[in-house]
Prior knowledge:
There is one protein chain. The protein has 15 helices and 13 strands. It has helices at 15-29, 42-51, 74-87, 121-124, 128-153, 164-174, 190-194, 224-234, 251-262, 280-285, 302-308, 319-325, 337-349, 351-367, 371-390; strands spanning 2-7, 35-41, 60-63, 91-97, 113-118, 158-161, 181-183, 206-211, 239-244, 269-271, 289-292, 313-316, 329-332. The strands form 2 sheets. It has a 7-stranded parallel sheet with strand order 3-2-1-4-5-6-7, with helices on both faces. It has a 6-stranded parallel sheet with strand order 10-9-8-11-12-13, sandwiched between helices. Helix 2 (42-51) links the parallel strand 2 (35-41) and strand 3 (60-63). Helix 1 crosses helix 2, helix 8 packs across helix 13 (337-349) and helix 11 (302-308) packs across helix 14. The longest helix has 26 residues, at 128-153.
Amino acid sequence: MKILLNATNLVVGGGIQVAASFIVEAVRRKEADIEWLFCVSAQVAGTLRKLLRAEEMPPLEIFERNPNHLLAGRAARKRLRGLAESFKADIIFTVFGPFLMRFAGQGTRRPTAHLAGCAVGWSTHPNRLVYEKIGRLQTLKRKIRRVWDFFCLRRARYFWIESDIAREGLKRGAGTDDAHVRTIRNTCAGVFLTAEKREADFGAREIRVLVMGNPYVHKNFDIVPDVLAALKRRDASRSYVFTLTAPEDGEAWRSIRARAEALGAADGVRTVGKVALADCPKLYSESHVVFMPTLLETFSATYPEAMAMRRPVVTTDLNFAHDICGNAAAYYSPLSAEDAAGKIVRVVEDSALRERLLAEGERVLAALPSPRRKYELLVSYMREILLGERA
């Protein structure tokens, strides 16, 4: 079986980690009946160099340009099309779409089988809160982009998705059915499972709260200064420090910093900037609580990462969060900084609650596929697809 893995369009966000983790498993499994062609972005290649030893690194076709760019990506699309044709792939595996290009054979009597992942919550299951946050003009733009996303997703015939909540939206938008969509849950990278676990000291006067991820608008990180101010009013006996991973030179961080200064809470918020995957477990270990104010997710790896590192999660009381975390999180009203602060204080002060959350987190994590199992499930799905295509 010849598989072209396409991760050329993954340049930011958690998709880079998912692609790199899958490739690591593929390289280490060395299945005799599979021949791989790894076509990846420079960002995925960079992550792989940190996860694999030099002698393990497979040959990579590295793309500096994103083929999804309509004009700037034309040369990249031409190169990728040529690689697919010369490799004579049995199946194209686009780790995450949408992907603009049709591969060789698409649209013919027997097209090349194409499996694409989808983790675009804005397209599959947007909600009222996130639309209200961005305003009418941006909402209109997002809805137009949603049409474009599904136009591109229809380049594939088969899909994998990380949550059942997103599945129905994908089916409607891509015009497909259950027979062509497989739900395969996300998980955390192996570095979190093998990392040393340290218990947090909740008797400390300084409580460190980790806010992990890129500051996209749907993550709602701009609520952090208001939550910090509410904590100062609610719990003066402790000092709360929020650590973000927002780029220091980005507009999102400047806005958060300015709001914190206006509220007299600048001393309690900081950013460490972009963090390499291998360094993430240390950030969790240095924190007491993981705060996820997000308004929209398909499946955020931050949840299982926190569970693996034995850190309690405080997050939004929304359906996608419940779908992922179940009883393993403390939930607050999504737009209420006061409620968020109250839940954080409760987690800090109530040891029985913390232990219950951590125990539930272990159960949730155990039910998720390991990186190896996720690899096996995806490859098994590809084998099923090819059997069906050749029948």
